[in-house]
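Researcher: Checking consistency across runs. Here is Leucine-rich repeat-containing protein 14B again:
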Amino acid sequence: RTTMKSLRFISAEAFVSNAEFARKSLGAVAHDLFPLLFKASYLLEQGEVIHDLVENWPLFDFNMGKLLGATLDYEEDLSHRTCSVCLESCLTGLRDYVLNQSSPYMKKLKMVDLTGIKDVEVQYCKCKKTMGRWARTQLLCKLCSDLVYLQQAQCNPGTFEVSISVLIDLFVTERNFELVVQALLKKCSCPLKICCVAFRSDNLTLQKFFYIIKLTDPSLLRKLEIVHNVHLEMEHLEMLFNSIHFPLLMSLTLPARTFNVRRFTAADEQTLANIGEKMGEMTQLTELSMPFSILTGRIQKLLSPLKTPLKTLDVSNCSLNHADMAFLANSFHANHLEALDLSGHDIPELYPSTFFKLLSHCSSVLRSLTLEDCNIQDTHVNMLILGLSPCQKLQEFKFIGNPLSSQALRHLFTFLCELPMLKNVEFPVPRDCYPIGITYPIEDASVCRFDHQKYERVAEELNLILLQANRDDVKTSTPLFGSYDAAVQETNNELGAYLIKSFKETLEKFTSSFNKMS
């Protein structure tokens, strides 16, 4: 689809397309045209022009989300283009704004907001090289450290009289930990003040996580993601909540196995209750993700203290029982849930009626539903259709890993065409594409052993159903090993190295113990 451009935008494109001319002429450009020229430069990947626009930014704020979002001059949203050329030019331009020799009285910029940048799987920029959240964290912290070093060298005292708040989503792992710590420690003396509004940590020791989270100024934090290789358990979470307050926290993601009720003692029950009470004090909290924890029979204890209804809940693979599902279905959260992930639960066998009660309560607001590996079979499809029919705002439906035949999928897709807001569907490889006798959930070693030609034929048929219903706006896919995760994709080399190291250490311990026994 071609996006319409205004004459102003076409003129801006023509102006910035000649980088040398544009850079020489910026001094004569009206201040209110800078946002227009910035978006045009970003679209055309004119890195040098972007750098000079930011270096000479004449306005009080610089908000990436707004600058790249839909505008009257050009409706296409460019905020999902994490183009390395453009973003590096932006950030180095910001550093050079500080270093620029013009009078500090001419410098109006007070606020830079980098949080509106969206990391997505498919990039449309020509260079095809992205700068993800981890790399943006790395570069900004390096530039801050460079400025502090130059300030200490006092190349020009007047240069550093500016003070600019930079809102950013930080992503910290072992590899960039020291750099980020140094930037946060020197925040007071740096003209660029890092303001962390979202924090993601992966592949960090608990000691380092607790140290750096205190440096971020938790009172500003809106989103906290502690994932994968941060070995946070329930007692550590209680320590975190007891020692640090998160008054603005809206979204919390916890790593796998944070909770494990199978080895609970009476003291653990009290710890869980304390965590629930602490979360109840977070009056802004509306998104909670705690996949792969074992929470059987404890959802009520954890969620009942919350005073604000949840809009997003991920309890995938949490071994929920009927009491847990009954609590969710009858709680005040049910009417507000916009995104729900119940993957890894045998819904048809364990609590079909309670699940559909929950679905009916959230149907008027539900936007995203994930039911992966839920043992949904052909005999359940009509009931599923009945449950999904009121969900007229549903935009995303993911149900890979369920034992459905190609015939059942065709029936389901015919219904999905009727959901007006639907944009993304992740469907399973049909059961009849696998060898007879395959058991579900399918083991990783067998997940790719299916008839690929037959799958392609079925996928074409399903897309044809959408096409004939004029629903070519719906994107379909079968991600065999889970949905795309930009953060994991960006740091997979580091995480892979960590896992190999952990495996090697475990093997060495086992060998040592075996030798001692021998």
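Researcher: Does this match what you'd expect to see?
Model: One thing to look at in this run: The radius of gyration is 26 Å.
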